[in-house]
Specification:
Strand order of the largest sheet: 7-6-14-8-9-13-10-12-11-15
Structural class: alpha+beta
Helix content: 10-25%
Number of strands: 15
Radius of gyration: 23 Å
Strand content: 15-25%
Largest sheet: 10 strands, mixed
Number of helices: 9
Distance between the termini: 51 Å
Shape: elongated
Order of helices and strands: EHEEHEEHHEEHEEHEHEEHEHEE
């Protein structure tokens, strides 16, 4: 590479699924590695990187950003790379600007809890141990909490929550995986849980007390509506045929199979799961996956009677992982609604629609903007 070649200003414009995927922090780290000056910013039409470099270095930086170091959640649908009139910069920065133009990009979907955040939940030495809203730049809600674009904390339902000094330090430290993670929080600046008896009678607003109560109530055969990332799920002990029968009657769902949430992949070893199904279960999508039932398996009556498959899923949100880490067995996790009605996603919806189904309602202080139900995946055999 010719280091003596003239320095110009270059503009890299990237479109696609580029917001909420850790793209700006990735670009910032690359800029530090290459000793670049300039800036990166999100706008309504994608990601813009402007920097000074020789042509050869600029092309290497472009390839590093778009190919070699592409964030795992990013999807690029187009790039433009051009030379600009020379500009002067004194450093490389991430710029925040209010852009009220019409968005033209792919909005990032909600992302299931990642492996790193999952491990922290079970680490007693970590300050986010058993924290029901753990997330980082590679996981957590996106689409369900966005109120405007570009994807910055101020444009999400995380805006009301002030970061504690520890979270703020992580948010501003380039080498941390929570650098510019818009959903960052921890027990010191926690999103609060609220626990009600059906009918909106407040029972507790203490996060740890609530997380301790729920597994005991499942054990006692209770139905609990729990607010997840995209809406409420109706949950109960998947091995208790009596509570499943009661849930079906109250939900007006007499026959349609019910999804089952297992604590972890190891608890699914009793099934013959294909590699494709396993990859999908553990992916950032974390859908319900239909897998073949196993004969003589202890599945409670009423889960999927008369079916040759069962719909299984893993905890896609930290609150469910925390609860199942304690409960240590499978639960029914079905849409929080009466059959054929939209999923409940606000507290008001839950109190109005689910009080006649659930014995208890567990909600939280982070509002949902766009409700979403869980995806269902089935793999078909291909015969040659």
């Amino acid at each position: 590479m010719n280091n003596n070649s003239p320095i110009s200003t270059w503009h890299l414009h990237i479109t696609g699924q580029v917001q909420g995927v850790g793209f700006r922090p990735t670009v910032y780290r690359i800029a530090q590695e290459y000793s670049l000056v300039g800036h990166v910013k999100n706008t309504a039409d994608g990601l813009h990187v402007i920097f000074n470099a020789s042509k050869a270095l600029a092309e290497s930086v472009r390839d590093e950003i778009c190919k070699n170091s592409l964030p795992s959640l990013a999807i690029i649908t187009g790039t433009q790379f051009k030379e600009l009139s020379k500009q002067e910069f004194d450093s490389f920065k991430i710029i925040h600007e209010n852009d009220h133009s019409t968005p033209n990009l792919i909005l990032t979907p909600d992302v299931a809890i990642c492996e790193d955040c999952s491990k922290e939940l079970s680490d007693d030495s970590d300050r986010r141990s058993a924290y029901a809203f753990n997330s980082c730049s590679q996981c957590g809600p996106r689409y369900s909490i966005v109120t405007d674009l570009p994807y910055d904390r101020v444009n999400t339902k995380m805006d009301p929550f002030d970061m504690c000094p520890s979270c703020e330090a992580e948010y501003n430290f380039p080498s941390d995986r929570r650098y510019y993670a818009q959903t960052i929080s921890c027990p010191n600046c926690a999103i609060g849980l609220k626990f009600y008896r059906s009918g909106a009678e407040m029972l507790s607003a203490d996060n740890q007390d609530i997380l301790d109560k729920v597994p005991l109530l499942w054990e006692d055969g209770k139905i609990i509506a729990i607010k997840g990332i995209g809406g409420f799920l109706l949950t109960c002990d998947a091995s208790n045929k009596d509570v499943i029968k009661r849930l079906r009657k109250l939900k007006h769902r007499p026959k349609k199979p019910l999804a089952v949430m297992y604590p972890d992949l190891e608890s699914l070893e009793v099934y013959d799961i294909s590699q494709e199904a396993e990859q999908m279960l553990t992916s950032h999508i974390s859908p319900i996956v239909l897998i073949p039932k196993v004969q003589n398996l202890n599945i409670a009556k009423g889960v999927c009677d008369g079916q040759d498959s069962i719909g299984v899923m893993l905890p896609n949100a930290p609150i469910f992982q925390v609860l199942l880490n304690t409960f240590k067995r499978k639960i029914i996790a079905t849409s929080g609604n009466i059959s054929n009605a939209p999923i409940a996603y606000t507290d008001e919806d839950a109190f109005e629609q689910l009080s006649e189904i659930a014995d208890y309602i567990l909600t939280n202080e982070r509002d949902i903007v766009v409700p979403q139900d869980d995806s269902v995946i089935k793999f078909s055999e291909v015969h040659n």
